[in-house]
Amino acid sequence: MTKKTTPVSPDFLYQQIADRFEHLITSGVLKTGDKLPSVRALSDEQGISLSTAFRTYCELEAKGMIEARTKSGYYVSYRKRHLAPAPVESKPDADPARISVDDMIAQVYQHRSDEGITQLALATPALELLPQSKLNKALVEALRTHPASCLNYEEVQGNRLLRKQIARYAVSGGITVTENEVVTTHGCVDALTICLRAVTVPGDTVAIDSPTYFGIFSVLQGLGLKALQIPTHPVSGLDLDYLENSLNNVRIAACLFVPTFNNPTGSCMSDDRKQQLVNLLANHEVPLIEDDIYGELYFGKQRPRTCKSYDQSGLVMLCTSVSKTLAPGYRVGWCLPGRFLPNVLNQKRMTAVSSTTVTQLAVGLFFENGRFDLHMRNLRKALHTQCLQYSQAISAYFPADSKMTNPQGGYVLWLEMNQSVNAYDLFQTALRHKISIAPGPIFSTDGRFSNYFRMSFGRPFDGQIEEGLKKLGSLIQ
Amino acid sequence: MTKKTTPVSPDFLYQQIADRFEHLITSGVLKTGDKLPSVRALSDEQGISLSTAFRTYCELEAKGMIEARTKSGYYVSYRKRHLAPAPVESKPDADPARISVDDMIAQVYQHRSDEGITQLALATPALELLPQSKLNKALVEALRTHPASCLNYEEVQGNRLLRKQIARYAVSGGITVTENEVVTTHGCVDALTICLRAVTVPGDTVAIDSPTYFGIFSVLQGLGLKALQIPTHPVSGLDLDYLENSLNNVRIAACLFVPTFNNPTGSCMSDDRKQQLVNLLANHEVPLIEDDIYGELYFGKQRPRTCKSYDQSGLVMLCTSVSKTLAPGYRVGWCLPGRFLPNVLNQKRMTAVSSTTVTQLAVGLFFENGRFDLHMRNLRKALHTQCLQYSQAISAYFPADSKMTNPQGGYVLWLEMNQSVNAYDLFQTALRHKISIAPGPIFSTDGRFSNYFRMSFGRPFDGQIEEGLKKLGSLIQ
Q1: What Cα–Cα distance (Å) separates residue A333 from each residue in A237, A318, A360, B41?
Q2: Interface test with B, best of A99, A109, A341, A346 (most B CBs within 10 A)
Q3: Angle at A332 between CA A327 and CA A337, to 5 degrees
Q4: Which residue among A84, B6, B72, B280 has its CA within the 20 to 30 Å range from the CA of A15?
Q5: Are B210 and B232 spatial neighbours (Cβ–Cβ below 8 Å)?
Q6: In this structure, what DSSP letter does residue A398 have?
């Protein structure tokens, strides 16, 4: 730790040093229990002020990497148990008489807002992470500045101010579009539905990730489409060889993938593999619906690129929303439908007429005044910290043979239990102890992943969460 | 006019007398040009105050029934040309190379908010008829009173306060339900879509009115459903014999009808015929999706009953929204899905997750504080007046062989031109003169009604509208 830092803006100095410590800790160079230099020693070593040194340790402490021991100093407290990535394949559920996936999902949702429940099931932001009062201001400003107080039908394509801002922000995902290439929707699932309608007819086959967000099965089912499940690796994402083989052997009308921070695995495809995917589909002339709803929630330095950013042929249709970043209740989403813009507009006109005016304009104003950037910096940091805190607690309390992902963004951990554990039984037992989790089988169409579950780290870590995870660990035992 | 009125509340006295005059005028007892008693004579005759007598004539004048001539008194000015109801059947479009219905609809919508257009195409309320500032207050109150400033996902079933109010208002349509039997949606078309999904699978056949709202075709198409068009009479509504015959010969999975103020014909089925329809479908165990979006917009004394009010078997699913009464841009609708509640909830959970929180709560509060009742009384009166004013102008300016409906509620007139008139050509010609109408072929799946068009009277009648109708009349000539 003797190498001096190069001069940088003092505001980011502590962050840079904390990052370096974090790397040393997670990579195992510094081990749990190791004593760290005193604040004064750190200050001297790094050539930084005492307050910057102190802030560095606070940052690491908040993330659960280190702990302060009274009158003794700082020690590494991170319990490294780098669990093996969960394998994709799992035995299909053998008992067809068991509860249906739809009923299971209904049960998970039923207890969504029950009092006293430790909510670990839903991939949504905790209220305290959202910019409540600033958004209220934007909404009132929307009422005030809109010529018709937002009572009128909005343009079918969406509020123009919002579309301009979406086009501006798309640059961070590597995309260059104008507002005329953006269509707003009633949330992300609505965007997926509209895009699917634009490029498929009932009876068509659509390739999807496995496992994937259960809502996607239902959308396909509702449109009379068949799902072809493509295995997805918990770290590298989609199995491209499997997909290529399928493209050569099955008529696939469209693909619907979550390449960045897949739900539930958290996997993020590398830039190279995203480009490969786009090229592969361009060669086969197959549209790619890219669900990018978690794309802005990266823990690293940079936003991962989107598949859309590699799109030369206009075949990629990016879909996302503000439900995971700003306001689930606003129901504001959008898509960038590439060459399918006329079809998408037609589908939206026919089925939704238009989206809610006032929430679209409020989000547009929130983007415009720069508050979105500021909010997202805080949200990403909070989620990263929570991810590490939850992971550590799971490492401490769960059986030694459980496995867990190590996501670099998003809201969820994907856990594999011993094969003898039935996740649906665990879900029901946990619910009796007032803990809600999302059982694995809801993430496949055919009852796979019966010993897996998804856990959200959307709520700030506290005593109740820790108790919940401890109890969950003992229930799994 | 010498019979004395029985004593009633003075506030409603003038209305009662005005109604009686209106009846005498529309039924032809009093003819255009007839002189009416002076205000003083009316006061004496009816035993009412001078101001009540004056108010009576003002009411009739506002509706275009009578006119004041300077220094001469009041005269009947209503130009009675009671046009024959438009027949249902029309020749199918012979030229398959013509523009598609979808493209036609897109063109109608394209000019929705163009500056300087005389907008007669869209069945929507003019902004000045909506309670803008009162709704703004309700929306700000929603933000203030909701524990999470409406940022959170709402319950899947919908905001509870709004559902309670919907259940309360359903009584006026003859329906007794609790809030647990209501599901809110993202507008009425969304409600129709969810209900269809709950009771059909792709490939099924759904019976619909002919003509009917074009959005219904697209919803069916998007869900992979087949449309069976049932003829609808412009006055009495659905042809029940035709329907019964179809039920005996075709497997119909569901019916989707607009029994009250059908769009575009404006027809309203009588109570008896609604009951017959419900019984017929109960005998065949076929669900009825009742689109009641215009049900609250009656011109008569009482709200027409709904089919849902006759439902004993739980097969009727009523769908509606506030888009025609309060705020199109809010996207707040709902359904009462009867026995299909679990399926409907499942469909909503899977595809929409939930509806916009803040607009749902704002509408709930607006209902709760009684402002909805007051607003609706004003809106109904305004629409009735506008309907009469538009009808009179059409009678004055359109060719003698054109026919027009005489709706008792809703937003639209349905006009049949001479067979030589092509409505799509008329639409294009009118657009060049900055007048927008809705050509007949967009209301059928197979290009029928090629010499019909629909005209909205949603905008208050003024000089621009009158000029537009005059021009339109001359273009038809």
Answers
A1: 24, 11, 9, 65
A2: A109
A3: 140
A4: A84
A5: yes
A6: S
Question: Mean pLDDT over all residues of chain B?
Answer: 88
Is there a contact between B151 and A327 if contact means CB atoms under 8 Å apart? yes
Report the gap between the CA of A359 and the closest CA in chain B (Å): 8
Q: Which of A12-21, A157-166, A396-405, B146-155 has the lowest mean pLDDT?
A: A12-21
Give me the residue label for tokens 């649906």: A424
CB A41 within 8 A of CB A17: no
| CATH number of the B101-130+374-476 domain | 3.90.1150.10
Q: What is the Cα–Cα distance from B293 to B378, expressed in whole angstroms?
A: 18
Quote the ipTM score: 0.78
Tell me which chain B residues have a C-beta less than 8 angstroms from the C-beta of A346: 102, 106
Please report, for chain B, the start and end positions of each structural domain, with discontinuous segments joined by +. Answer: 10-76, 101-130+374-476, 147-372
Which of A275-284, A312-321, A457-466, B445-454 is predicted least confidently?
B445-454
CA distances from B391 to B235, B404, B477 (A): 16, 8, 18
Contact call for B356 and A354, based on CB within 8 A: no
Pick the CATH number of B147-372 from 3.40.640.10, 3.40.50.300, 3.30.980.10, 1.10.510.10: 3.40.640.10
Which amino acid makes up residue B219?
A: V
CA dihedral A276, A281, A284, A286 (to 10 degrees): 180
Confidence at residue A1, expressed as pLDDT on a 0 to 100 scale:
41
Q: What is the mean pLDDT of residues A229-249?
A: 92
pLDDT tens-digit map of B18-34: 888 888 887 777 877 78
**Residue-level length of chain A:** 477
Q: Choose among B24, B17, B113: nearest CA to B58.
A: B17
Report, as an integer, the average pLDDT of A197-202.
91
- Tell me which DSSP letter residue A117 carries: -
Helices B50-62 and B39-46: crossing angle in degrees, nearest 10, is 120
Q: Is A204 exposed, middle or buried (0-12, 13-18, 19+ CB in 10 A)?
A: middle
* Segments in chain B below pLDDT 50: 1-7, 81-98
B215 interaction partners in chain A (CB closer than 8 Å): 350-351, 353
Helices (H), A171-226: 188-199, 214-222
Residues sharing a CB contact under 8 Å with residue A228, sequence separation 6 or more, in sequence order: A205, A206, A207, A208, A246, A250, A252
Contacts of A189 in chain B (CB under 8 A): 351-353
Average predicted confidence (pLDDT) for chain A: 88
* Bond into B287 cis (ω within 30): no
Q: Following CA atoms A103, A108, A112, A114 in sequence, which dihedral angle do they give, to the nearest 10 degrees?
A: 90
Of B106, B151, B193, the CB nearest to A127: B151
Whether B147-372 and B10-76 are alike in CATH topology: the answer is no
CATH class of B10-76: mainly alpha
CA distances for A45 relative to A17, A23, A251, A352, angstroms: 11, 18, 63, 62
Q: Chain A residues with CB inside 8 Å of B355's CB? A: 331
> Where does B146-285 show beta strands of DSSP type E?
183-185, 205-210, 226-233, 237-238, 254-257
CATH architecture of the region A132-372: 3-Layer(aba) Sandwich (3.40)
CB A409 within 8 A of CB A268: yes
When CB atoms are compared, the residue of B150, B153, B328 closest to A151 is B328
Residue B226 falls in which region: left (phi positive, over 0), alpha (psi -120 to 50) or beta: beta
- How many CB atoms neighbour CB A455 within 10 A? 25
The residue with tokens 């960038």 is: A336
Question: Is B91 exposed, middle or buried (CB count within 10 Å of its CB: 0-12, 13-18, 19+)?
Answer: exposed
Q: Do A148 and B156 touch (CB under 8 A)?
A: no
